[in-house]
Structures are given as C-alpha cells and as structure tokens.
Amino acid sequence: MALSAAGGTGPKPSMHFVFDGGTWPDGSGIRLQYEELDEYRFVDPGAVTSYLPPYLVPRVTGALRARATGAAVYIPVVTADPAPP
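^ that's the sequence the OP posted. Answer follows.
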C-alpha cells in the first residue's frame, strides 16, 4: 500500500513497505514475537507523531492516504533523524 526508500549510511539501500493488515476491532488474536517486539498499541492517526520518530511519520501518513484513496503511495527518500549535538 505504501513504499518508501530509506537513505542512510549502510552498505545497501533499503526499501520499506507498509501493508494494510485489515481491521482488528479489539486486538484479539494478535500474538507478538517477543524476541522482536515488547508491545503493540492502537493509536489515533493524529497521535502518531507522539509515538514515532519524525522520519517514520511520512510512512504512516502515506499508508493512511493510500488506504483512503485506494491507490498505492510512494514516499520519497526518508532519512533518519540527525544525531543529537
């Protein structure tokens, strides 16, 4: 549904895909792979900036736009936050 290219300093460029996993009314049936994830949370779309670093927000807003329009979205190169001074 949404695709973004990630810049960075790694040896290879990377692509990130966001897929629509459908609707989960109450989260039942979600099982986490605890080696990779500590928790999950449903948040209002307007609150994503409170939970994600700024460089990830365009992926979520792009995916929401794709879901609303029914068309795939490409998000231009996304770079990580600069290192703090």
